[in-house]
Amino acid sequence: MKQISVFVENRPGSLMEVTSKLVEAEINIRAVSSFDTPEFGILRMVVDNPQKAKETLTHLGFVVRITDVVGVELKDEKGNLNRMLSILADGQINLNYIYSFVIRDGSAPVMVFSTDDMDRAGKILLQEGVRLVSDEEL
């Protein structure tokens, strides 16, 4: 799964500037998470066209990166997040960050996370029966 990260100033309206440009470019935002410091923020998004989003925002002067993340389907049941985190911890996989979203009708929530070893994390989860979600399924 691909994610875009956009560096934005930490001021009123800065997130809206990004989202309005994506709306104008007809890009659908499927998930969003922001992390901030006093001066700037990092807006992380799963969108329907990461390359077009990057080109659109870069052309407007934003610093944008496309990165791989892992999307995991977790049924809305007690303990499922802990089970996934236990699998990763047992495999010595450290998470850089994690966020979730629900977008697919009748489907389970999706947890999105980043780690320094994406391939290994995906393999470990698959071996334990955890369902990964691809961009095409969103």
UniProtKB/TrEMBL annotation:
A Pfam family that the UniProt record links to this protein: ACT_8
The superkingdom listed in its UniProt entry is Bacteria
Report the InterPro entries cross-referenced here. Answer: ACT-like_dom_sf, ACT_dom, ACT_dom_pair
Domain ACT span(s) in chain numbering: 3-74
The record, for SUPFAM superfamilies, names: ACT-like (SSF55021)
The name of this protein is ACT domain-containing protein
